[in-house]
Amino acid sequence: MAITTCSLGCSNTGGTQISCGVTDVFLNQEIQLRFTSPVDPNSVTNNSFQITEVTTGKTPAGAFSISPLDPNILIYRPQLTFDSAGLPIFGLELDKTYFLKVPGTALDPLGPYIKSTTGASNSSRLQCTLIASRGVFDARPGRPRATMTIDRVSGYDVNGDPETFELNVTAAEATDVYRASPVRIVFDDVMNPATLANPVTGQSETITAFIDADGDTSNPADRVPLQGTFTLTVDQNALRTTVIFQPSGGFPSAGSTVGEERRVVIVLSAQIADLGGNTVINPGATNFTPERIQFDPLVVQEPFADPGREDPVRSGNPWGNGILSNGPGGGSGRLGDLIVLPGRVVELNTDSEDFSSITDPQMFNPDSVLDAPANLEITDGIFEFARLRIDAGGVLRFRGSNPARIYVRGECVIQGLIDVAGTSGVLHTSDLLTGGTGGTPGPNGGLGGDGGDRPDGSAFLAVGGQANPGVGPSNVNDPATYVFVNGASGGGIAFPSTIDPGKTFTAGGGGGLAWPQPTTANPALHFPANVNDVTGLQPEVYQECRNTVASAPGGGGAHSLSGGLGDGVYAGIPVGPIFLAPDSEGGDADDLLIDDSVRSLDPDLGYLRGGAGGGGGGAHLQRTQTNGQQLVNCAIPPPATTLRVADYSSHSGAGGGAGGGALQIAAGRRLIHNGVIEASGGDGGSGTFPPNPSTPNDLAQAGGGGAGGGVLLQSQEVQIQAVPRRIDISGGGGGEGTGSPFPVDPSTGGRGSPGFLRIEANEPAEVANEQSKVEPLEADLQAIYGSGVTMEDIFTTAVWSPSNEAPSGMSGAQSCWIRPTGNFFRLDFEADGAEPGWDMRVRIAGQAEPQSFRGENDLFPGQTLEALWGNDIGGAPIVVRFQGARATGTLIDACSVIETGALSPLKSGSLTGWVEHPSELSDFHGEESLTPNIFRFLVIWDESQPEFAGIEGLEDLTVTIQPD
């Protein structure tokens, strides 16, 4: 037995040695050897037919076969595989060199050898060096053609089920296509798999399947994607590639409307190509009509036996053991979901919020708002969400005069930041005409007081004064003008509560008095009215007869404790009597009459309040100089002159920090807090002290710090990550202002008080276990207020016992998306007829049997419970709503479906609003391609309604559907 010829142009150079005439080969090069005798395939191995890459010595993957046309011919093919993207991987690698050797007995005494079927060994050696330099070989030149076939039903049995079939029928324009038929697409060439389908994922970007909803295939706008799986088979022997598409759940029915039968459309992309890069010759759309299926009405029942259909992140009510009961609170969830994505900031106003600033429906979708008003405006600061999720890096901020009250029907998860903090007064330059603006408060917090305006200097321009006409005081005989130059007091806290009609506002940090100005102790002090009016100044003889007494800094705002004093520092050397501006009082917590009720932060009692603001620093005339005799007596002018102002220097003051806001979060199921709640007061504004040498007259007085706000967290389960400063209710620090330059000792605004924190859960937390997560710590409190102050003065816990008043008395449960199984395209929900289109049973105290909600009942003959109680949110004890959508993809988790965006399995635009009756969903959008094939329901309880008494729970919610 010997080699006679080969496909590489073999030549016999010495009778026993065979060489190759072709050494440059393709990546998929097929090698054929013809022998003198039939080949025994069992003798062909990687040792008897050796091909190795010369650098690594590795044997490329390949396969051996005997030609079906000639048993004397052995065929070797490099193996064709695919990577995870479906790209082909050939046995040979581009530009690699391979050594090919087939041992022969004449020159290779050790073997092994390829043998004949009679046992004779190959005697001639084949030995070549090959270079894979020619790319991919197109085994069948020319453009490939696709043939598409399906199976159709040719007959049905007496029950209407398919009985006889025609198999492998041409797909184009076929009718009665079997609901479970695969779509077979056969290409008459070895195709490039990457242009067909990914064999790992079973998906294709070049072969797409659709349902044409109305059967008019000339209009592709109403096509609905048809999901399924693609499998791929490459037959290198027959030079054929087969793709099989199996639709998920089969093809839907052609529908009940004669003349508008739905069609299946399969589209082949023009980019489909063979291994040689030749594109398919017949791309485009092929359509066929599936069989028409008659469906019986379908009753979808939820028995509440287990939580299999419960949406756990949007539900707070007990669901299971055959009953749906009312929950402990959490509100109606009427605003739907709020999800703050990483890197995004959402700011909501508690006075007037219409959500128009949130344009990303993945964060807030107006379509999911329950019974949405035309302007969707919230004016009371109460936000009722179905779920709330703040991702790491996301910020949810509240501003406005009302407390921020967040109700979450289901689950609240905070990974990012909730910001209700007061902002700080800014670094202030004292030559500005107006005082520094006080900080902006958190919701319901007190404003930071503005700093005093710079006094009027228009009368002193001739002596180097700073022009500031019209601000005041220009008439020192009118004390009313001092209002412009005094620091403003910080905004106060509503007392006795936010809901008392006669409330006042108290506990704000005092504003710093401008200086000099008349006081009871020294009524002669005043701002000069002109260059000759110096009697109200206090020049210092050792400092160039300059005025060295500054104004008062602002006091700190109060809340759980009192705010700190604004402490002014004298900048001169005491010689004789010096009259300093009196320290500004901090807000007084005693004015709030704090007791256990106040510490409850109960919004219904009006005790959910923000902290008070810090006062602004006063304006002053530090460094204003007289022409008195320095080092002698500043009241004695030089000879032959009049005592007067020689250099007029005036300064505006810095603003105070604002109070932290009031925040309530009440979550029906659980509250998981791994982020940060920032409810601190803002720092008081500062001046630059000591001043820069280039600006020695930059001498702003400091503002006081704002107080921390009030934070109320309520849920059945409250979990706070064991990390410091998860909740910050600390007061802001007082700013630093002008003071003594030797040694450097600035004046300081009063510090702000801490706020309040209260946590309520089914199992009350222990303050000792939770306090490390709170700012400030007990040690910080005692360092400021003494050992008599403890953490319980600012942090309390209790059992969560929501009131029956709305929204606290409202709760709810929502189902996951429900997708009935069957070969139907749409769900037509039954309207009310002889029987209700949907119903449920209500357990009522004193009744032996549960009562129909929408049908006949034993309590009110001739009137349904729904009609008696109504179905308005906020006006009925039980409210039920329904929502639909069209799913075009697989619902991996029906309780966690992305509803909008590129990753959503829902057809864009198909999500309906929430409706009172499921029959409203059937043609909600008036477009066949958007009709629903999934739905969900929602039940809201309202304990504030008088009819709620006696209602114990719900059973067996049913929805009747006619599938199509």
Describe this structure in words.
The chain has about 950 residues and is mainly beta. It folds into 4 domains: about 130 residues, Sandwich (Immunoglobulin-like), CATH 2.60.40.1220; about 140 residues, no CATH class; about 170 residues, no CATH class; about 325 residues, no CATH class. The protein is about 0% helix and about 25% strand. It contains 4 helices and 56 strands. The strands form 15 sheets. Strands 2, 3, 4, 6, 11 and 12 form a 6-stranded mixed sheet that branches. The protein has a 6-stranded parallel sheet with strand order 26-29-32-41-44-48, with no helix packed on it. The protein has a 6-stranded parallel sheet with strand order 27-30-39-42-47-49, with no helix packed on it. The model has no long low-confidence stretch (mean pLDDT about 95).
Secondary-structure blueprint of this entry?
Layout: E1 3-6, E2 10-12, E3 17-20, E4 24-25, E5 31-35, E6 50-53, E7 62-66, E8 73-78, E9 81-82, E10 88-89, E11 97-102, E12 125-132, E13 146-156, E14 162-170, E15 183-187, E16 207-212, E17 223-225, E18 228-235, E19 240-247, E20 263-268, E21 284-288, E22 298-302, E23 319-320, E24 323-324, E25 337-340, E26 345-349, E27 382-385, E28 387-390, E29 395-399, E30 404-408, E31 411-414, E32 417-419, E33 493-495, E34 504-506, E35 539-540, E36 546-547, H1 596-599, E37 625-626, E38 645-647, E39 662-667, E40 670-673, E41 676-678, E42 710-715, E43 718-720, E44 727-728, E45 736-741, E46 744-748, E47 756-761, H2 767-770, E48 774-775, H3 778-785, E49 795-799, E50 810-814, E51 827-829, E52 838-844, E53 851-852, H4 865-869, E54 878-885, E55 934-942, E56 951-963
Parallel strand pairs: 3-12, 4-12, 25-28, 26-29, 27-30, 28-31, 29-32, 30-39, 31-40, 32-41, 39-42, 40-43, 41-44, 42-47, 44-48, 47-49
Antiparallel strand pairs: 1-5, 2-3, 5-8, 6-11, 7-8, 9-10, 11-12, 13-14, 13-15, 15-19, 16-17, 16-20, 18-19, 20-21, 22-56, 23-24, 33-34, 35-36, 37-38, 45-46, 50-55, 51-56, 52-53, 52-56, 54-55
